[in-house]
Design brief:
eight-stranded antiparallel beta barrel, 153 residues
Length: 153
Amino acid sequence: MNSKTLWAVIIIVLLAGAAYWYSNGQSAQQPAQGQQQAPDESSAVDPLMTGTWKSDQDAKFTRTFNADGTVTDAYDGNASATVTGTYSTVDPLKEPAGVFGALPLDSLTGMTVFKITFPQSEVMYFSVNKLDETSLTLTYIGRGNILLFTRAK
């Protein structure tokens, strides 16, 4: 085999490999027909957060995060205090100006930030300081309150 033929074979193999790699990458990004596209990174929530969390500061308060994006706050002994809303992870740079008060946006870089919206209430933003199988630590952005939780279920 002469050198021109060898180079032609190498180029064809490289082009075929690149075409295969590109087409597999594109098909992996497109949902199959009839399927919904998965939520983008800004709305996806860590599965570890799903479940019921009991406040370390007030044993009667629980917050339950459901996989469907709903959240329920409850207070033991006061059924009227139970409220259900929605939550989602957000990109702080895409939220309306001023929602974080005077907090500089660059201080949220690299942090998981999510918002909770309850009917008849303001939108609340939290940063996740710690999340593992048994504990959750949140900071209420704008107020600075640190909320400590232990997994209840």
